[in-house]
């Protein structure tokens, strides 16, 4: 029984161990995935912390775990340095190498293309970047990954917006915005919102831009990201200026410039001074504008073409107001060159207005008229552009509902896929647990069945065995007797029985006690069993009465056997059991006759035994003289 208990205990242990191994494994993979998520969501932003996390992922990921190996490869791609064009170009080469891996799945390929495009743009190759972004968006939709679609469309939107291609830019950026917000990816959502707001500003919708910028500023300030909040402030100032709300613009410019001064970022402050001067001049605050431009001039050089061009324009406007048209014209020429180099039409249009006024101040009416014509042409071009942009805006806004619907569908699909995956994983664990449980139950049932069979066998043995002598009991030997008779009849062979009984056993009990009587019976049983062949059977059929079955044995042979037994018993020394104890037996022998029934055979043996007793005991009597003559086996 203790073995059985041990077995159950070990079964329970196996289940517990298996479950805890599965648990530990899942925990480990969970931690790996959580770390991936953190890095990808930009929840970890310190470069050193990112490198450390990637190193620990490298150590933890099994090299046969392909999905995670590929996820790590994508992370490696994005983690390349690109603070110079040279480094960005090296990152493109690295991305190319990763893209060459034949084990890449579609999702990985899409992400690596995006990564290569990103570094191509930083390396000054916007066309390559756009081609990669296009391909990446296509693949991201194929694999229906909302995260990747958001990334690809955000990056593509930014580049399209920069190139002035507003319709597709807004569609990309709005889609990415919905997705990032739905996925709860805050850092990327804010990043994308900045692009979106700037696109609206560039596109001629400063009100919408300001609405987004204000959301961003609030968010950045609440997160303590003051540099980012200040960058947004300067965008707000520019948007107000575009709306001709110069007082508001100035308020934001001042706030921004003060921040960069106190943060010891003089170049950033200088660029704000340039932008600020335009609003100051429009507000009639010329001396302050002059003072700010003087400060800016110390740091803003020709390579900062965007600011340099406006700096020259504003300086020219001041020179003109101060009645110095020659100086103004020289400044205008420098500014014009810079505006042309960056193809800034809006700046050029403003510059040509000042140029026309300057020529007029110089009395050169012809050139003044020419400049005015150029200004008109530029203005018309800008107007037309604005018109087509308005149409674009209408279309994009109209399409917003469609984009939102598409995104909802996409996210729903993603949610379903994740749900299915979860169920699949749970099912696997369930299958494993069920298998283990079934095995354990089978083992337990087998042990039970085995034990039960053993017990039944024992019960049967006990039911057929005499408890004292361990010989077959009456039921057993009678059943065997019937079988032997049937077999003998079938085979036409002889069969005999000896029925023997201890003599005056009552006296033994009375004189020596019941215990001694028991022991004497055991000696008698052992003696009889020892005398017999394997095919014979001795059984105890009553208190001190025994039966011997002798298949294939004639009456005469049986008589001899009975005599041998009688003699053996008579010779047995029983002083070991009790001094002076001796025991004899009387036996009746009968052999299978015409009647051919076991009970008839027994009756005749019983009759012979009765005769042996009557004749004085300690003797063997064969069943009547007729039987000897009639016994066919006797002739064998
Ligand atoms: N010790 C012991 N005695 C038993 C057992 N079974 C029966 N007896 C006794 O055996 C005795 C049989 O007595 P009887 O039937 O009178 O026969 P007997 O004394 O042997 O006389 P004969 O058979 O005529 O020689 C009885 O006293 C029973 O109590 C047993 O298992 N153990």
Automatic annotation (TrEMBL):
<dbReference type="InterPro" id="IPR011990">
    <property type="entry name" value="TPR-like_helical_dom_sf"/>
</dbReference>
<dbReference type="InterPro" id="IPR019734">
    <property type="entry name" value="TPR_rpt"/>
</dbReference>
<feature type="coiled-coil region">
    <location>
        <begin position="372"/>
        <end position="427"/>
    </location>
</feature>
<keyword id="KW-1133">Transmembrane helix</keyword>
<dbReference type="InterPro" id="IPR043128">
    <property type="entry name" value="Rev_trsase/Diguanyl_cyclase"/>
</dbReference>
<dbReference type="Pfam" id="PF00990">
    <property type="entry name" value="GGDEF"/>
</dbReference>
<keyword id="KW-0812">Transmembrane</keyword>
<keyword id="KW-0472">Membrane</keyword>
<keyword id="KW-0175">Coiled coil</keyword>
<protein>
    <recommendedName>
        <fullName>diguanylate cyclase</fullName>
        <ecNumber>2.7.7.65</ecNumber>
    </recommendedName>
</protein>
<dbReference type="InterPro" id="IPR050469">
    <property type="entry name" value="Diguanylate_Cyclase"/>
</dbReference>
<dbReference type="InterPro" id="IPR029787">
    <property type="entry name" value="Nucleotide_cyclase"/>
</dbReference>
<feature type="transmembrane region" description="Helical">
    <location>
        <begin position="429"/>
        <end position="450"/>
    </location>
</feature>
<feature type="domain" description="GGDEF">
    <location>
        <begin position="493"/>
        <end position="625"/>
    </location>
</feature>
<dbReference type="InterPro" id="IPR000160">
    <property type="entry name" value="GGDEF_dom"/>
</dbReference>
């Amino acid at each position: 029984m203790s073995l059985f208990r041990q077995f159950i205990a070990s079964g329970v242990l196996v289940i517990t161990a298996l479950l805890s191994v599965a648990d530990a494994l899942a925990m480990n993979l969970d931690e790996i995935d959580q770390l991936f998520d953190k890095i990808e969501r930009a929840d970890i932003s310190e470069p050193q912390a990112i490198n450390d996390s990637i190193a620990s992922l490298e150590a933890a990921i099994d090299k046969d775990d392909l999905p995670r190996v590929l996820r790590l490869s994508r992370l490696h791609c994005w983690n390349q340095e690109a603070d110079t064009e040279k480094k960005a170009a090296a990152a493109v080469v690295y991305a190319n190498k990763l893209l060459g891996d034949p084990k890449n799945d579609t999702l990985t390929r899409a992400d690596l293309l995006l990564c290569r495009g990103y570094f191509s743009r930083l390396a000054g190759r916007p066309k390559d970047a756009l081609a990669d972004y296009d391909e990446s968006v296509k693949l991201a939709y194929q694999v229906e990954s909302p995260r990747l679609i958001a990334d690809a469309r955000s990056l593509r939107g930014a580049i399209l917006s920069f190139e002035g291609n507003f319709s597709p830019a807004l569609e990309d950026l709005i889609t990415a915005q919905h997705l990032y917000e739905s996925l709860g990816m805050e850092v990327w959502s804010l990043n994308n919102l900045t692009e979106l707001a700037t696109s609206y500003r560039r596109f001629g919708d400063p009100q919408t831009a300001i609405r987004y910028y204000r959301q961003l500023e609030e968010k950045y300030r609440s997160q303590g990201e003051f540099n980012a909040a200040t960058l947004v402030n300067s965008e707000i100032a520019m948007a107000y200026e575009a709306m001709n709300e110069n007082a508001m613009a100035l308020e934001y410019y001042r706030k921004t410039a003060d921040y960069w001064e106190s943060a010891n970022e003089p170049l950033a402050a200088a660029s704000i001074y340039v932008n600020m001067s335009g609003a100051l001049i429009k507000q009639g605050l010329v001396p302050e504008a002059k003072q700010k431009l003087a400060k800016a001039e110390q740091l803003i050089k020709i390579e900062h073409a965007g600011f340099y061009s406006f700096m020259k324009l504003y300086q020219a406007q001041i020179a003109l107001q101060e009645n110095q048209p020659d100086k103004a014209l020289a400044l205008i020429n420098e500014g014009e060159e810079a505006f042309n180099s960056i193809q800034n039409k809006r700046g050029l249009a403003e510059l040509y207005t000042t140029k026309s006024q300057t020529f007029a101040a110089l009395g050169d009416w012809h050139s003044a008229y020419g400049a005015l014509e150029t200004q008109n042409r530029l203005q018309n071009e800008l107007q037309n552009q604005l018109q087509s942009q308005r149409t674009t805006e209408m279309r994009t806004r109209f399409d917003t509902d469609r984009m939102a619907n598409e995104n909802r569908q996409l996210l729903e699909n993603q949610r379903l896929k994740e749900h299915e995956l979860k169920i699949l994983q749970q099912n696997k664990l369930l299958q494993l647990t069920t298998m283990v449980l079934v095995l354990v139950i089978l083992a337990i049932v087998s042990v039970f069945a085995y034990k039960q069979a053993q017990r039944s066998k024992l019960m049967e043995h006990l039911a057929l065995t005499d408890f004292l002598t361990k010989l077959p009991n009456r039921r057993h030997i009678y059943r065997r007797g019937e079988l032997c008779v049937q077999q003998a009849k079938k085979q036409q062979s002889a069969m005999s029985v000896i029925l023997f009984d201890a003599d005056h056993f009552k006296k033994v009990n009375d004189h020596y006690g019941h215990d001694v009587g028991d022991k004497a019976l055991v000696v008698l049983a052992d003696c009889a069993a020892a005398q017999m062949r394997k095919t014979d059977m001795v059984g105890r059929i009553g208190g001190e009465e025994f039966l011997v079955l002798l298949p294939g044995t004639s009456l005469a042979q049986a008589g001899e056997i009975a005599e041998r037994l009688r003699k053996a018993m008579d010779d047995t020394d029983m002083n070991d059991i009790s001094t002076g104890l001796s025991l004899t037996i009387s036996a009746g022998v009968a052999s299978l006759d015409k009647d051919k029934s076991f009970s008839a055979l027994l009756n005749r043996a019983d009759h012979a035994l009765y005769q042996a007793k009557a004749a004085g005991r300690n003797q063997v009597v064969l069943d009547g003289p007729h039987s000897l003559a009639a016994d066919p086996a006797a002739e064998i």
